[in-house]
Structure formats: C-alpha cells, structure tokens
Amino acid sequence: MIVALAGGVGGAKLAHGLYHTLAREPERLAVVVNTGDDFDLYGLHISPDADTVLYTLAGIANPETGWGIAGDSFAALEMLRRYGDDAWFRVGDRDLATHLRRTELLRAGRRPTEVLAALVAALGVRARLLPMADEPVATVVTTPDGELAFQDYFVRRGHRDPVSGVRFAGIERARPTAEARAALAAAEAVIFCPSNPIVSIGPILAVPGMRALVRAAPGPRVAVSPIVAGRALKGPADAMLAALGHESSAYAVAALYRDLLDGMVIDRQDAEQAARIEALGMRVLVTDTIMRDEEERRRLAADVLHFAGELRPARQSMEPPT
Length: 322
Ligand code: FO1
Hints:
Shape: globular
Helix content: 40-55%
CATH class: Alpha Beta
Largest sheet: 7 strands, parallel
Number of strands: 14
Radius of gyration: 19 Å
CATH topology: Rossmann fold
Number of domains: 1
Bound molecules: ligand FO1
Strand content: 15-25%
Distance between the termini: 20 Å
C-alpha cells in the first residue's frame, strides 16, 4: 500500500500522478485527505479537499481551477443570486450533486469514510480515499479581524488577511479511522503531497494518534515541498509560513515534518538547500517538482516512488526485529 497525505490542488495533482504510476494496481493507493476545510453551506455538507482529489482521480476536475468539475454549469448559483444570495462559493451544478448525495448519506447515518468510499466507487476511482477522521474538525484562522472559518478566509476573502494563528476546532475528539490505521500499518511508503503544511497536512497530522501511526509505518516517509524558490505554487502557504514565524522555504517545510520524515523532495531551484535539509536527519532528492501537465505529475510520482524505494532498506534496518 502507498499512502499519500493530501489536501488542496497540489496534493490532488501528485495523488493523480501516483494513481497513474500504480496503473496496474491502483487499489494499492490510499489517499488520506484533509477534512479541516469542510463546512456547511445551503444546508449541505461540503468537503472541498476530498472532492478535489476525487474529481482529479476520476479525470473530471476543472483543469483551470484544479477544484470543481470540468465544464460544469452554474444555473443553481445564478438562481440563488436572483434570490439575493451573494453566492461567494462557486458551486457548480454537477458539483452540487456531490454535496447533495454526501449530505443525504451522512443524514442516513453513514460515516464520512463510508460516504467518500461510495462516491469514489460511483465515479469509478479504484484508489482508496480516506477522510483524516470521521469526527468533524474545522480549521479556524486568526486575522486582524478576528477568527475566521477557513472557507471565509480562503475563498470569501481571497486569503488576503494576514494570519497570526491557526487552530483545528474539534481536533481533540477526532481519531484516525480504522481504515486510515490499516492503510498506514501496511504502508510501503507514506508520501506527504506538496500541500500547504499548515492548513492541509497540518490538520491531518494534528489528529491525535496520527503522527504515531505515520512514525510506525513500515515503509519510508517522504515529503514533496510545496514551496519552490521561496514561493507557494498555489495558495497562501508562503505568506502563512512567514506570518507564523517560519522561513518560506523547502527547508522550513522539512523542519516542520522533521521527526516524521526519511526523505524530502525539493525542486532543482532549491538545490542549495539540500545540505541544510540533510542536516535535519533525512535524505534529499532534488528534481523538477512543478506539475504543469499530467505527464509531469506521473514523472514526479515515479521519481518520488523510486526515491522511497532507495530509502526502504535504511528504514527497515531501523525496525526492531519482530
Ligand atoms: N476555491 C475558490 O478559490 N473559490 C471558489 O469559489 C471555490 C469553490 C469550490 C467549490 C467546490 C470545491 O470542492 C472546492 C471549491 N474551491 C473554491 C476550492 C477550495 O475551497 C479550496 O481550494 C480548498 O479548500 C483549499 O484546499
């Protein structure tokens, strides 16, 4: 089993590359997705990061935005506008069906893990997609205007507010699911996708017990930096790292994960950081990490898996004999 930790568009892209690289056995891939971005709108439960990975693996993601469905229409949103709603969150008509179905199944008493599995199966995706927990967790950011719910900060206000703090409401009641535990216990490799380390991977690792499960995974743990040449490829990860007192660099991302990683993948543009990152106690692969098209997703995924394969003997020799 290859376990990927993902949130947001960058995470979905690498998960897609891994899915294709494991083409003959796609069921070997399990993607643990951030649910701290989940929220309720129009009485529906929306799980943006899960849906971004779902649509990307199903081959129906909107290629321009990375989220939402390619070629979707917005008739429902236009009608809501006529009723006076400001319709700040752009839910397409087909996307709306996902939120309707998810909400219906949740109200019928199914666990979020079961609901996501049903959506995955219906769209013909053969990898496992696993919410980080079945309990509700909500990312909240502190800004000069006070605390903001994540989608308010990110979408409604365009992630322009300086962030001085982040918390994950409800995290103390969350637990890794039986499915996530089983996947990590069987992991030949754990891949931290190039997702925001604070608000995408951060909530996953904050689930009580999750870090211990990642640390105990039998295979090597490898992260791909979402920061290239000091900048986030998408979203506010660079500004957020800086505002929270970190460097905005691949090194800072490696330092945040240092107790969990065997290897770090950084872009050629950051090659000069390799020695500093290795001094944190992990190996470094320098390669092209920017995924402009599907070919680049597959190539990066293959590089990452090959690198993990090289780290496997070192990791296994660290395991106590059973
Ligand atoms: N992101 C936006 O920037 N604007 C939107 O209107 C928006 C709508 C949206 C609808 C469904 C969905 O699954 C995701 C959507 N996203 C939108 C993306 C999303 O909320 C963020 O990218 C993530 O939460 C950050 O990982």
